[in-house]
Q: What sequence folds into this?
């Protein structure tokens, strides 16, 4: 089974880190191909970045289709372009916020999301609504760390995140923690040990959910809104997306 | 007051038609500048088209900011890129689905949306959720007409849409109709006369809502999620969006 | 265009103040007629006052209809008698809570209502439900000021309200403020400058929404619950309401 | 125990009929005083009638307080003035829609309301929302009968209502029926026998709920929104409501 | 009228206490038979206890049916086995959480539940959802007292519960209190006097609701999910439940 | 990895069938142990059966814990005893309705559940609420087949189910089908081929979700409601459940 793990930002150090974490949980026989698009933002910290990460993401889906990938993971906690990607791909596409929230709802009564910037909290709430997970989502908390601080070993990010996770458990009455940024994937084990609570990393969860759907022979239904998009002309430097 | 009316697809006949309708309702002193992006799809009929219309749309917002526009209208019923546009613009940005649903809720107990393709109905329901309008939205109905059929005088579109509107009133127990595509903007008066019900065209409604917010001195709040996005590098042919 | 701005309480100093604010935002050519009923409470601070303000309000609607008004604004944050008024009037009728909440939802991610007495907060929440605005309403906060203290220049009302608005922004994570009493209409600009956040005054917003609907040719639908009420005998000193 | 059963319309034949039905279910020792206001509409078939029934209703509450009543029932399915009445009365106040919906939720999985005019269905849905009963309310169905047709022995009302009740059970998958008009109170037994389903009459249910609350020593809480309204001047022919 | 009050745990001191409280509110002519099952847990403090209390509870329902009881009350705040009991019994079955929440919603704008252990709070929230009472339930608060501490006169339970009730009123903005454990039934009057707020005891409320339904001739509908369960073989020491 | 697949009814032909289907999707290295309890009903077709299946189910969980199982699947579409089982087990416990609904929400916009008896539809809706899946659940449809008819090769069950699935796709506008009974597990492939839509079998989905959680090192959180239940005496023939 071949899964394309797409980090929709263009920072390859983060992509590589996710690849390592993904392979650590993948089943024997699953090949993880971790990629970043050739175009787009170096990090995703706004609706603006989120929207502009999508063309590069869709390039990667199209390449994946040409290369016969079985499933895709979109590895940014805003799940950018998820529905467009589902239209384009034959196999299943999973977002990491989607995977993390679903997994968290299976092992506890309520979770807190701990993320980077406060300005993205509203989007996490919106995704909880979209996936039906609002009743399990007790809070979305920001550490006010820029995404790329997670890539900087000299930053204080580790400690700040763990402190916020501890507050989440006591103040929100949550019994599960959800990591709100793909860049936190390597902290999962450490936070779990520090807090004693189950911690869900969306990258790992999404890989396993993608494996699950492929193993079950379940693909995105093409009977409804996620049918292959009608082909049509596209103008300008997006012309390659038409046909 | 200068309002930039952005048709996010690249079909200028539709853009021009919207401009005419917008000017017909605009206040004296309001200048309507109707534009299409230089890049992107000729029509928006999928999540894929919707996502790929956003870069061109954001180009138009940026140009508008440079030229001192007071407000923006996004004239596609999926309201693509609305939140990203709000981050980028100083003045208010209104989507036509948003405007139409809000206006419809002020004049009746429940509305039906009549749109083009069935595959976009799910998105209209999602927008009703997002705007809090689910309790007023009694149904979303598709005519199974491609968007560009609305631009073809030889098509049977007019009759098909009016028939669907009649069914909406009797079968959905709705008392207001909402046109579910920017390309229907010129049919508003005709449908209202044919059915005897109030018909809300989102293009006209959004123009008036934009005027309203400007007149009230209300701009998108920059205190929360819609703050100006942090500047950062963008790679490839999207580099112009970074800075 | 003639808009009848009805302050449903009988305190004309408040009515006059609202008229001034309304005219300040009205379009050229809009005539604002600000009135109070001849009967009813001097202020509205309970469900009891709210209910008993309605007969006088409906008198004003009927007079307005006879005099050819195009639209009506009900200028009390409980929106008393809104649905009954919609049945009676040919043109649109807008409540100020309704207008303020809708406008606030267009320019931010969540608003706080700041109102006078704690005992009216439940009603504001109920209206947020009714209009579909619950998902945008982050809090309703009371200053514990009687309504008529707003008319008393010697009171400390101004400072108390601004303090509560500041707390709303920091404690509720709101990015927009909504004034929860028609009597605060003249404080809008001052609060906005003091807090740096957009502040929505329902009186001004409702005037512009009424103008919008008239400009769009949209009237309350008479196909459903808001059809003209059936005529019938009324007994006692309400006999003038029958026919 | 003394319960004041207030029919908020001024048609005493209906009031007397309700009194008979109420006494048939009341406990030994409960005195039912069935009254209509001196002022207001002869029937309630619109938001307009509903609003204008409230002053007369509040007169009856005030008289009841002076005469030492223990509890009140508002016997119109729109539950007009319920919250205002709760502010005014020391003892509990129950609306018949409220009582009927609560009782129905205790004996089945979902109910249908069968009411008179289609134009009042929206209000029944709104009340289901207000009381938390939306998840039990499967449908609200109208017979398109004027309220006073229920008082006319020559009308076909009986048969029409029973037919609609039968359709409710088969088409709505409901297992309980709720009578949507106080004027249907005397049909309860007959409909139950004709359909074989439990039928809830709000008048009877409200009497028993009022008895229950009095027996439990439970009165409307005066700590919150339902505290006694502040006294203040009222102008014109409503002056008696001030103080 | 004969009502079987079933304490689903096997601690008879608690059962007897409930019987005393129930008889204190029952109507003349109502016979209260308070029982505990022969099998099952001595207290119910987990989903595990809750589930394992149900066989004994159903034994008591079956015995009650053989002895001609008119109605049943399930006297544990988790309302264990309520739907199964409704299938089995001819007459109505009421849970004490259900009764308490409904009654509380009739006399205030929002209630707080004060219960024993924090680990049962989630279940109280779930029941509020199930009964449609979420919009009235402002908080569920735990005293962290084991259920059987309520039976120990030497414990500090009384004071701890009253303190938590006081906090509920001030911190949750509730105007009604709901006792979250059947074992608190004898504290109702004392808490009400200490706090000045209405306090709803589910045992008393359920007895009165059961009386109400019997008086109205309303039984659980057998048309839907609560029809008598199909008979079938049961294996092992549960064989007596088959037939 | 050892997963205990518990069919909570006592019909071993069904248990064996589920075991075959489970092993067909399990990963290499996963050992599936399919069992039925020694006590309880031969099929689960009511809340009564559902409740009485739980003691036997909990026996199987306890045995599983003693034997070192890593995870558990509860293979009845009512997910009986799920929360009690979570308290008891160290590893994750998944219900098949839960697994099926979550999986279906990942591959389409809306699903229909096709189940056996109409009297169980309400429970499926309740579970959709509990898991947050209401927004994806477009309908729950019954074939009015007894559960054990699925075990009878001579019955017409196959054809009836496929017909109902076809109607679900066209009438409910669903794009995914969910099998609403564990006994349908062997029909999954056939229905998918007959209808052309993705079909989710909860038994298979739950096995993969259990594998996923074990692979991710995620266990039920013991910080909240699902903590190990407090030990205490149990009376009568349930004494083995105490300790």
A:
């Amino acid at each position: 089974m071949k899964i394309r793990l797409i980090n929709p930002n263009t920072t390859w150090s983060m992509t590589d880190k996710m690849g390592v974490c993904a392979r650590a949980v993948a089943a024997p026989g699953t090949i993880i191909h971790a990629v970043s698009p050739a175009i787009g933002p170096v990090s995703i910290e706004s609706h603006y970045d989120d929207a502009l990460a999508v063309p590069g993401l869709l390039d990667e889906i199209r390449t994946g289709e040409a290369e016969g990938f079985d499933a895709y993971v979109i590895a940014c906690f805003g799940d950018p372009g998820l529905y467009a990607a589902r239209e384009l791909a034959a196999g299943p596409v999973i977002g990491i916020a989607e995977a993390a929230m679903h997994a968290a709802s299976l092992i506890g009564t309520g979770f807190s999301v701990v993320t980077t910037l406060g300005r993205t909290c509203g989007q996490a709430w919106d995704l909880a609504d979209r996936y039906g997970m609002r009743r399990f989502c007790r809070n979305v908390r920001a550490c006010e760390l820029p995404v790329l601080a997670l890539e900087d070993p000299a930053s204080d990010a580790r400690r700040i995140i763990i402190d916020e996770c501890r507050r989440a458990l006591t103040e929100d009455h949550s019994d599960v923690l959800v990591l709100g940024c793909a860049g936190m994937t390597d902290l999962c084990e450490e936070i779990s040990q520090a807090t004693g609570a189950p911690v869900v990393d969306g990258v790992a969860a999404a890989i396993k959910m993608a494996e699950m759907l492929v193993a079950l022979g379940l693909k995105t239904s093409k009977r409804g809104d996620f049918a292959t998009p009608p082909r049509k002309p596209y103008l300008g430097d997006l012309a390659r997306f038409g046909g």
About this structure: DSSP finds nine helices and ten strands in chain B. Chain B touches chain D at residues 109-110 (CB under 8 Å). The longest strand of chain B covers residues 137-142.
